[in-house]
# Entry
Amino acid sequence: MTSIRTGITVITLSVYLVAVHIHAGKFEVLHWWTSAGETRALDFIHAQLSQQGIDWQNLPVTGGAGEGAMAVLKTRVLAGKSPAAAQLIGPDVQDWATLGFLTTLDEIALQQHWSAILHPTVDTLIQHQGHYVAVPFGIHRINWLWINRTKLKQTGRSAPQNWDDFFSLADEFRQQGIIPLAHGNEPWQNATLFETLVLSLGGPRFYRSVFVELDEQAILSDTFADALRLFARMRSLMDDDINGRSWHQSTALVTDGKAGMQIMGDWVKGELSAWGKEDKLICTAVPDTRNFHLYSIDTMVLFQQPQPDKDQQLFAATMTAMNTQLGYSLRKGAVPVRNDIDVTLLDPCAKDSYLRFMENEMHQTLAPSLAHSMALNAEREDIFIQKIHRFFQQPDTPVEQVQAEIVRNLKPLKQ
Ligand code: BGC
# Structure
């Protein structure tokens, strides 16, 4: 995913001048939301905007966490066919804004009091040099463990609170003849699983020292080594068909009772709701992360047009309105980016996520997702993701070697 994103930094101003175009009536939206839940959440917004006369055109690019979508976006922009809006998240927004591609949304932000109604973390994320340059959609929590309700009940156990419980439960699922842990062997899925383990074993401050501050001692520490060992142990809970399995295929395995558990962000809940199977799974925090919040915040950017584009402004205003935020979050499995939500309107998993987000934000202990581009820029993120992925393919590699390689590869990028 990320090596593709890196390329954007070399785009020059002359390319930018070619890239600008009028969206000529059609409002093209490039995104990577292609699963049932993701599509349903987007359709909800699409319908609202269509009612207001916006001729919405979907440009979906398959691939969880944006694998694929960024390559297509770059190609389109270089070819002078930038869409009106594109899904772009995390520090990458800053890169595109620096190059001058993005429409500023200061007027809408002022009219709608974004600085007052948005969670501070969201408010900061969507600004570049004091100007609003992205539209916030929703907040996902990544450190969730999803368990098949019926299968869990059959074991007579409750949801695991620590790793001993987790592995005992996994054993019981194996005895029931089902896959203990459903997973797909893609770089971003492996990084998603691994980052929850780093948070679990080290807590949010340790997590940040590794994935945000790139602290060498933290990366070379026993805690990081233990996270790698735990990650390797996870492989033993999976089946042999993990290659090419999407995250929602894993969710389907758990929902159908062919697997017991899945560790994945709460977009899983969007899927369950699209399938009408909300009651099949329970959500619980990944062991030892109950008080923490490992987040991914979805945002879309709007590409500059030669003339001010009122459709873009309408899009931004609609997205942050209270009813859109609630309707979208419910369908997507996310929680609203606004801080003034009546939590009684949220389902129990969403309520937990929403409250934990605010609590950790207050204590400055939020953990930005590495796998979902919240923690680092593309080049640095890529080093971690590639090393984590490689280690997962060769889990017999000494963990010290992996740690040393990460430190060595990061070094030139730290100056
Ligand atoms: C996005 C989610 C999306 C998930 C799987 C994450 O990076 O934040 O909105 O559902 O990837 O594609």
Observations:
- The chain is about 50% helix and 15% strand.
- The chain has two domains: 8-141+297-362, 144-293+367-413.
- Residues 187-211 form the longest helix (25 residues).
- The first strand starts at residue 26 and ends at 31.
